[in-house]
Structures are given as structure tokens and as C-alpha cells.
Amino acid sequence: MNHAGMDHAAMGHGDMDHGGHGGMDDMCSMSMLFTWDTKNLCIVFRQWHIRSTVGLVFSLIAVVLLAMGYEALRALSRKYEHSINNRITTMPHDEPHTETTPFLAPGQNQQSASKRGHVVKSVFYGIQNFYAFMLMLVFMTYNGWVMIAVSLGAFLGYLVFGHTTSSTKDNACH
């Protein structure tokens, strides 16, 4: 369909709905190139729209805290895995346990505890991957300030929560 003969001036900009956000000057900018520009910066969601310096500062603090939260989640996951492995090694191999202790349910053995522990570890794994990919999307705003905030959050998170962990990353995306 050829629209060359349409009178675009007659349509006017007043007919365009911008969702009540103040027009074209107040829309989220999406850059696919590295930038330090913060005008109309949106982080992952249209609702996380930065319109002021104060908004930028609070958003960068939030990004640092989010990245630290990822490291806290990884530490919690490692702590759970260590705890469940210790519990499983102290359990009977095949015969059901007949005593009730604070850590064991009646009749629980290594195999059933291992299966239950694996389900919980799988939940941790799935949440960690989702979290890591979301942080990757935050980083992919290609905004230098946001990229620094993610990296600073990873640094501070590892500093606070990574005491018992190698600094070598095993996840490719964050």
C-alpha cells in the first residue's frame, strides 16, 4: 500500500496517544550503543523511567542493591547445599530412620532426603538463573552509569556474601 499521497500534516501530533506521559520528549530511550546519556532512561521496564537526577541516583542505588541481592541469593544457595549435604551424609543409607530428631522426619533416609534436597536446590538454581538474566538485561541498557552500578553491586555483594566462595564465576551471564 502506497502512503506517499497521504497528508501527514493534517493528521497532527495531537491525534497520537502517548499514554499520558507528556509526548515524544518523555518517551523511554533505548540505545543499542554504549552511552552515558540519562535523559529518558528506562531500566528494563517502561515503568522504571528515570526523569531526574534524583531518580537516577535512587535507581543506581537500587541497581547496586539488586546486584548485591543476587550474590546474597548465591550465598544462601551454597549454604543450603552445604547444610543438606552434611545432613544426608549423617543419615542411614537404606533402612528408614526410626528416631525423630529435629532435622529428620520419621522414616527418612539418605535417598528420600537427597531427592527432597535436590528439588529445593533446583528451585534455587532456577531463581538464580532468572535473576542473573534480569541483571543482564539491566546491564544491557548500555548506559555507563547503570553498568557501573551492576558491577559495583556484584563487587559489594561478593565482598559481603562471598567469603567462602571462589571468585571464579561459573555462570556465563552475570
TrEMBL record:
<feature type="transmembrane region" description="Helical">
    <location>
        <begin position="54"/>
        <end position="73"/>
    </location>
</feature>
<keyword id="KW-0472">Membrane</keyword>
<comment type="similarity">
    <text>Belongs to the copper transporter (Ctr) (TC 1.A.56) family. SLC31A subfamily.</text>
</comment>
<dbReference type="GO" id="GO:0005375">
    <property type="term" value="F:copper ion transmembrane transporter activity"/>
</dbReference>
<dbReference type="GO" id="GO:0016020">
    <property type="term" value="C:membrane"/>
</dbReference>
<dbReference type="InterPro" id="IPR007274">
    <property type="entry name" value="Cop_transporter"/>
</dbReference>
<keyword id="KW-0406">Ion transport</keyword>
<keyword id="KW-1133">Transmembrane helix</keyword>
<protein>
    <recommendedName>
        <fullName>Copper transport protein</fullName>
    </recommendedName>
</protein>
<keyword id="KW-0813">Transport</keyword>
<dbReference type="Pfam" id="PF04145">
    <property type="entry name" value="Ctr"/>
</dbReference>
<keyword id="KW-0187">Copper transport</keyword>
<feature type="transmembrane region" description="Helical">
    <location>
        <begin position="145"/>
        <end position="161"/>
    </location>
</feature>
<keyword id="KW-0186">Copper</keyword>
<keyword id="KW-0812">Transmembrane</keyword>
